[in-house]
């Protein structure tokens, strides 16, 4: 989110949240947006230190489809790790790359268990 435009210290020109209010809202369950997943999404936002992107985007036929930035966020990857616009990956390719990827937190846990099982 952009910083405030000076009209109000907590809002920018289009009425959306500015960076300060976005960060303050991290970790606060939004049941209207996420329903039964609100608490889990809020925890993950807090752990990652950034808000969840939109889970869907408009597809070629005008219907909602899974958004690669959301999958990237779910996996705990750095923002734009796969979805960087300069890479020019089509949506389906980005999802394929993400689907074949490793969730870093799971890999760390697995390696710790394997390496520390005899200590």
Can you tell me about this structure?
With 119 residues, this protein is mainly alpha-helical. The protein folds into 2 domains: 1-52, no CATH class; 53-119, no CATH class. Helices cover 43% and strands 5% of the residues. It has 6 helices and 2 strands, in the order H-H-H-E-E-H-H-H. It has helices spanning 19-25, 31-34, 38-48, 68-74, 91-99, 104-116; strands at residues 56-58, 64-66. The chain has a two-stranded antiparallel ribbon with strand order 1-2. A hairpin with a 5-residue loop joins strand 1 (56-58) and strand 2 (64-66). The longest helix has 13 residues, at 104-116. The termini are far apart.
Give the secondary structure arrangement, pairings included.
Blueprint: H1 19-25, H2 31-34, H3 38-48, E1 56-58, E2 64-66, H4 68-74, H5 91-99, H6 104-116
Antiparallel strand pairs: 1-2
Protein name: DNA cytosine methyltransferase
Structure summary:
This protein is mainly alpha-helical. The protein is 43% helix and 5% strand.
Task: Please supply descriptive tags for the structure shown above.
119 residues, mainly alpha, 2 domains, two-stranded antiparallel sheet, 2 strands, 5% strand, globular, DNA cytosine methyltransferase
């Amino acid at each position: 989110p952009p910083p405030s435009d000076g009209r109000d210290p907590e809002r920018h020109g289009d009425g959306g949240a500015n960076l300060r209010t976005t960060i303050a809202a991290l970790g606060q369950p939004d049941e209207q947006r996420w329903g039964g997943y609100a608490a889990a999404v809020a925890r993950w936002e807090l752990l990652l230190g950034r808000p969840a992107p939109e889970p869907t985007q408009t597809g070629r036929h005008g219907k909602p489809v899974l958004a690669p930035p959301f999958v990237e966020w779910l996996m705990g990857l750095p923002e734009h790790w796969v979805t960087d616009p300069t890479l020019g990956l089509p949506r389906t390719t980005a999802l394929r790359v993400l689907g074949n990827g490793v969730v870093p937190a799971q890999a760390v846990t697995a390696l710790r268990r394997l390496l520390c099982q005899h200590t």
